[in-house]
TrEMBL record:
Residues 1-10, 20-33 have a biased composition (Basic residues). GO terms for molecular function: isomerase activity. This is Peptidylprolyl isomerase. Keywords: Isomerase, Membrane, Transmembrane, Transmembrane helix.
Length: 274
């Protein structure tokens, strides 16, 4: 038979062990909870970063972007479609294994005319600053690559751009080759803003991954100097862009970033030397 002191010590030891067990279980639950929270945060952060870096202004192999944050989203109630019906025809499906050989004169002036369902948008191309890009766009336009393609993305929150150049309309299409980044030290974008009127390449968020997708900036947009600027939009083209932006976007999945409500189709794209 145990003494009262022994029994008291035994009960104290059992109580201590139960307390230790409870503390261990609490620590284990806390670790699991914190790990779950960290995982959620990591997913959210990764998704946000991917949205800005690739889909945000992503293109060709969309992950893009790189979608815009909704913190200062511009209200975009659906307005009547301000554009005409597309011309008869469908986008091409041709692909190329490598970038076309250089055929432009980098000292000459080139103009790209986007004949869209919403009006003509004329672009002055910077062959001196972005010769590979301009050469590729002339090649693709001559091949009819952009004809009958729909501009698939309009952002109206934090960044303000219309994205085009994907025959698939999915944000994942491209010509089969990629282009080197160019003109990233252009003083116009050096301070982290792409000014209204800029034409620039979309990419996957990684260097040298531009293809055929491009974006037209209709309002000053804070973006890192990671997207090849290769031209500017004329005054009449800016009016067309404002009309498109005014119709808003389909923001059911991501407010401030979606398909344009306007039926923006490039009926015909041409690049000419002037």
């Amino acid at each position: 038979m145990v003494s009262k002191d022994q029994r008291r010590r035994q009960l104290a030891r059992e109580k201590y062990l139960r307390q230790q067990q409870r503390r261990t279980q609490q620590r284990s639950r806390a670790r699991k909870r914190n790990a779950a929270i960290a995982g959620v945060v990591a997913v959210v952060v990764a998704a946000g970063a991917a949205a800005w870096a690739s889909t945000g202004l992503g293109g060709d192999k969309k992950t893009t972007a790189d979608a815009a944050s909704t913190a200062s989203a511009t209200p975009t109630s659906k307005a009547p479609d301000p554009c005409a019906k597309p011309a008869a025809g469908s986008p091409g499906t041709k692909q190329w294994k490598s970038e076309p050989s250089m055929s432009i004169d980098s000292h000459a002036t080139y103009t790209m005319d986007l004949g869209t369902t919403c009006g003509d948008i004329k672009l002055k191309l910077d062959a001196a600053g972005a010769p590979h890009t301009v050469n590729s766009f002339k090649f693709l336009a001559d091949q009819g690559y952009f004809d009958h393609t729909r501009c698939h993305r309009l952002t109206t929150s934090n960044i303000y751009v219309l994205q085009c150049g994907d025959p698939t309309g999915s944000g994942q299409g491209g010509p089969g080759y990629t282009l080197p980044d160019e003109n990233l030290k252009d003083p116009a974008i050096a301070k982290g803003t792409y000014p209204a009127g800029t034409v620039a390449m979309a990419n996957t968020g990684q260097p040298h991954t531009g293809g055929s997708q491009f974006f037209l900036v209709y309002k000053d947009s804070p973006l890192p100097a990671s997207y090849t600027p290769f031209g500017s939009i004329d005054a009449d083209g800016m009016k067309v862009l404002q009309k498109i932006a005014g119709a808003g976007e389909d923001d059911s999945n991501n407010p401030g970033d979606g398909k344009p409500n306007a039926t923006v189709v490039i009926n015909k794209a041409t690049v000419t030397q002037s």
